[in-house]
Amino acid sequence: MKRIGIITSGGDAPGTNACIRTVARRCAYDGVELMGIFDSWDGLLADEVRPITRDDVTGIVATAGTMLRSSRSRLFLHAGDEEKAKVALAKHGIEGLVVVGGNGSQTATLKLAEAGFPAVGVPKTIDNDLAGTELTVGFLTAVEMCTHALDNLRATAESHNRVMVVEVMGRNVGWIAVEASIAGGADMALIPEFPFTLDDVCDKLKLRHEKLGRNYSMIVIAEGANDSEGVLATAGGVTDKLGRPKLGGVGQLLARELETRTGYDARCTTLGYLQRCAAPTAVDRILATRVSDKAYDLLTGGQSGMLAGLRGFEVQAVALKDVVGKEKRVTPEYYRLAQLFG
To answer: How many Å apart are CA 118 and CA 99, to the nearest integer?
Structure first.
């Protein structure tokens, strides 16, 4: 291949720029021209495409966000969209594509590959919910940010005898909530995979405060978590551009319910975009470099329709057909660790 493209799609995640840097450097070494597609798939259709050189990526390994910018697009939601994308890519002489993104992005990658256009995936999402890889780029930085927040909020909770509720991202899976809870010593983690009742949560709080003599508690809740009776349901019919319910606010509802039911002073902090805007940790920079390096080899080696996934300690080629449509969820054994220390 003489000219390939790279695109970042979906929500931004720390380490994305390290992915771009890796592919740009590989291209520079091999004499391959790299075309950056700006503003994701909508940018492709709008001809927001220009060359990316080695000089363009100098120093970006340490920066958050994506130099190519990103968005969630409706492209690939309808039959025939793959052909639109292929025409737009061919217009710029792009012979193969590296797609840096999560579940939705890799669905698009597979559709392109099945339509005959060489395309490979790099796993990038702070939710860590992508099948076929142990870790996704951005996840560990997000966990680090949440852990720091828990460490800091503990001082306020303890000083004021409060129940501190911390809402973190996690629409369908609770990886961030669980790992941050383990690392930050939270007393409870509430996630979408495992149902809970408000009565159970209140009982655990009363046990801590009235039987064990604790004067504060820390609860981490994923934005997509809900109690079995639906009291904390936040999806009120408002959807995003992809038709998914807009989430957010479950932590506030939980704090209000806990205060009403137990009489304990309860407060909520919603971390929101602070989880994804930090400079990537060293681990995420290295992971981004390794998986992007592998993706480049897959693409130029003719292995289209593959994801560069971390399996154990090695980065391996994983068929996207075995990834798309699946979701890596927190296992009971892993969740047990978060419950063990509550």
So the answer is: 11
